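ok trying this again, last paste got cut off
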Amino acid sequence: MFLRIHQYYLGLKPLKQLLFLFILNGIFWYVAWGFYTWYFNEAEKTFVYRLFHAAWMSLVITIPLNWKKVNHAFKRKPND
């Protein structure tokens, strides 16, 4: 299963790889934040709050750890 996902990931273009990593990281942070609120009994946190936190943390983690992919995905093509 993981090998198939990894092969799929390697076949993507750099920008789609970043989006894929962002989504996976966002799912991880959403689940982690859900466990945190469950364990510390902070049920007043809303769905939107957890989703915003997951997206923010995913962005903060994905960009620095994959800086070469970010540069490669957004580099300018020389004019012909």
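PB: full thing came through this time. The chain has four helices and no strands.
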